Amino acid sequence: MSFPSIDFYDLNRSFCSFEPVRNPTETNFISKVNILSIQKNNNQNSIAMKLKVLSLITLLCVFAIFISCEKEDNSGSLGGTQSAIGSVNNTFQLSGVPTGISGLSAKVTNLADGKSTVTYSATITNSTYLGMASSMTDVNVTGSTIKREGNYRITSEGMESVYPEGNLTLVKYDAKVGDTYTLKRGSTTLRREVTAVSTQDDYSWGGMYIKTIKVKETGRNIPGVSNIEFVFNHKFGIVGLKVSFEDGTSKTVGVSSTNQN
């Protein structure tokens, strides 16, 4: 914070320059009046400065309150017991897969030390989707066939992605809107934020309506993709996936698991 400069010459002149008068009593009175006037101005300036400082402090406190509401969680703090969704041979089915993608499968192929490995494979004939897949460092592409392995912790409390850099929460079933999870990966930061938590069965899935938690992810840097939204349910696990593209369009895929929590 900068303070206004003081011209000591002008200040000295204000204190010491008075109109000449013949009556000493009058002179003394005028001097006192001028001094009181200066003191009043100084007091007003002091009060104004204090108000500005208090306003700044208040503003900083407000910022601190709002920043603290954003819960940063990248420490792998997910608890709970092992979920059957993460058990070996559990499979995931997908509906509404875009044209140009076929033979898509996802299956838990290993479970060790609480870490489930899910193996994905598909055939992609759409050049745009194939280009997106090829840009991802953890996807193996052979011709039009892609394969990827992802590691997760899947418990009764939620799901986490397991990366070499650390664990990153996908969902906690007791999440609140605004909860945020981040993880630095190389030169980018993956960020996941809870954007919606329903209190009523309002999401159509599998011929029924269910409660959901929606988590938006950014920072993956896939060409053409703006963000990815994951949709979860406390009983069924992941139930949907919405990909929003930079051209303003989006595509939603339904997901279901053979096993449940």
What features would you describe in this structure?
The chain has 261 residues and is an alpha+beta fold. It has two domains: 8-68, no CATH class; 84-257, no CATH class. Helices cover 24% and strands 41% of the residues. The protein contains three helices and 15 strands. The strands form two sheets. Strands 1, 2, 3, 4, 5, 6, 7, 8, 9, 12, 13, 14 and 15 form a 13-stranded antiparallel β-sheet that branches. A hairpin with a 2-residue loop joins β10 and β11 (208-210). The radius of gyration is 32 Å and the shape is globular. The two termini are 56 Å apart. The model is unreliable at 1-22 and 47-75 (pLDDT under 50).
